[in-house]
Amino acid sequence: MKSHQLLALIIMSALYSFSTLAEVRINGFASIVAGKDTSSKNFRNSPYNDEISFKPETKFALQVTADLSEGLSATAQIMARGSNDFDAKFEWAYLSYEINDHHTLRGGRLRLPFYKYSDYLDVGYAYPWVRPPRAMYSLLFSSYDGLSLISNYSVFDWDITSNLVYGTVEDTFFSTTSPTEGKLDDLYAINVQFSKDWFSAYVAYLGTDVLVPRADIETVAAITDAVAPGRGTDIRIDSDYGDFLGLGFTLDFENWLFNTEWSTVAIENSLSLDADQWYASLGYRFDNIMPYVSYQETENKRQTVSISNTPLPAQIHPGQPPLNTFLQGVFDGLKFEYIAYTIGVRYDFHPSAALKVEYNRYEDIIDAGSLGSISDPESSGNFSVAVDLVF
User: Which is a Pfam family this sequence falls into (predicted)?
Assistant: First the structure.
């Protein structure tokens, strides 16, 4: 975290030092969001409960970009989130160098190019919904420290943009349930976008070594080592290779707007979930009003875990079940699958601002609230009202 702050301070110093020589541009955006769940169950770690709250998703941001001439620029984005008591922090801080008309190299703290809206993840005005579909936009991190090479081409009237990424991530994972300091090493990614007229699409891939010593998983790994020495490594998320594959396309034809994205995530040699996520969304513009509907789903691909049938010692579990039975119960407690339906409307009441009203209905297919939980499907609804603006 200190390295992130140091990098941001260096870039801000550069912005200040060159302000008399450079063209400085200041932009900003904000979202004022009120939400309320229909139950108090905190479904899928929802930031809301059964009382109206403005704090969880309200945010304000400023972005400063200094053009230092000859292809060099510096950018810093400062964000204050209600979920963090509006403590301002640097989301982005990077230097950019335009090598030529087709290639731009960036270095610093950057946004990972997972999804269609990755670059605008916090800019509510950029997408039709109050928030991007949770099933799809659910990874525990969104930024990295490293390098990015962006390339732009035009081929047979198609605009093609690629983004090659290399770097690391150091962050707090599972912040709402089991806060754990984790790290992603040797992270590499590629995102390629294609667009022509009213059609656009992308494909993205990311691979990295994942280290997240989550306390409850470490406890299960210690039990595994006690029964099957050396096999705890098959439980821990300890520098295990993980990857992400995503793709999606958009049809923005006349008054119709259709979005769909799909992704799959997996971590090898660990007690982790391999999951698929996807959504589809359709909207229709009536001048400056757009009603929309969407459907989203997440599904676990991996269903079993097997290490050893050796019984657990009585001091660990009085019933002395086989290790595999115990681990399967733990794994089942981690699994989750749910679907969600969304209906909403967006009203662009100003050239730089939009009002959104939205209802989401979430339904569990299977439930997992904690390690070793039993099947207990639940459902919940969420009402949200937001005003998104850019300036």
Answer: Porin_4
